[in-house]
Amino acid sequence: EMQVVESGGGVVQPGGSLRLSCAASGFTFDEYAIHWVRQAPGKGLEWVSIISGDGGTTYYADSVKGRFTISRDNRKNSLYLQMNSLRTEDTALYYCAKDLAGFGAFDIWGQGTMVTVSS
Amino acid sequence: EIVLTQSPGTLSLSPGERATLSCRASQSVSSTFLAWYQQKPGQAPRLLIYGASSRATGIPDRFSGSGSGTDFTLTISRLEPEDFAVYYCQQYGSSLYTFGQGTKLEIK
Predict the structure, then answer these.
(1) Which pLDDT score is estimated for B95?
(2) What are B85-100's pLDDT values in tens digits?
(3) Model confidence pLDDT, tens digit, residues B49-99
(4) Residue A58's closest chain B neighbor by CA?
(5) Which residue from A46, A61, A107 is facing B47, i.e. has the nearest CB?
(6) What's residue B94's pLDDT?
């Protein structure tokens, strides 16, 4: 069964940093791009970032560009999101999602990890 | 950035009825890159439709997608109790991904 599991969320002060992780299983990890998608409490979905299967290509939403860094370790079947200079508006449930190759869609989602930015 | 606008914001229907959800894009979207998701409270989103009209694995055939260009539709032919949820459309273009604001499908 294809699965992704996020971890690393928590409470952090504005301006602080946090690193999220996503562990994948049940598929050939390095063959697929992986995304981070977030959802603020009671709000809709917002795409955050994508990394290619080999890790060589990354893209970011304007709202996080320059503050967040996506990376992956294909030896460990793991994805990461380094979040710096956090703002209160970054408070959200962060999902890791597998890319459906060729269609720009997200076919496998984790249950998310909650990030709260508050003083 | 392509903006997706979903309508209606809330749709109140009864089980057994037909649901029609709309997603309108601010500029043309390739049908290949238009998807629909279902999200129930406390759960992660689930992919329903990709490529505008292809059902994802395990999705019942009462769900169908259609449309092209700037206008796309998700249709649920006969509502089951488990279909009441929030539905999002999503597009990919120019290395960016955007979601609509969602349509809440509630029991009348």
Answers:
(1) 87
(2) 999 999 999 889 999 9
(3) 999 999 999 999 999 999 999 999 999 999 999 999 999 999 999 889 999
(4) B95
(5) A107
(6) 85
Mean pLDDT of chain A: 97
CB pairs under 8 A between A and B: 66
Q: Please tell me which residue of chain A has the smallest CA distance to B51.
A: A103
Residue type at A90 in one-letter notation:
D
Which residues in B24-36 are b (16+ Cβ under 10 Å) and which e? Answer: bbeeebebebbbb
**B92/A105 CB distance under 8 A:** yes
**Residues A59, B37: Cα–Cα separation, whole Å:** 22
Q: Which of A45, A100, A104 sits opposite B45 (nearest CB)?
A: A45
Could you tell me which residues come within 8 angstroms of residue B93 by beta carbon, excluding any fewer than 6 positions away? A104, B2, B29, B30, B33
Q: Do B88 and A45 touch (CB under 8 A)?
A: yes
What pLDDT is recorded for position A93?
98
CB contact under 8 Å between B47 and A112, yes or no, is: no
Closest-CA residue of B relative to A95 is B44
The DSSP call for residue B56 is P
Residue B9: count other Cβ atoms within 10 Å of its Cβ. 9
Per DSSP, the three-state class of B67 is strand
Cβ pair B44:A111 closer than 8 A = yes
Residue A44 is classified by DSSP as -
DSSP run (H or E) holding A115: strand A113-117
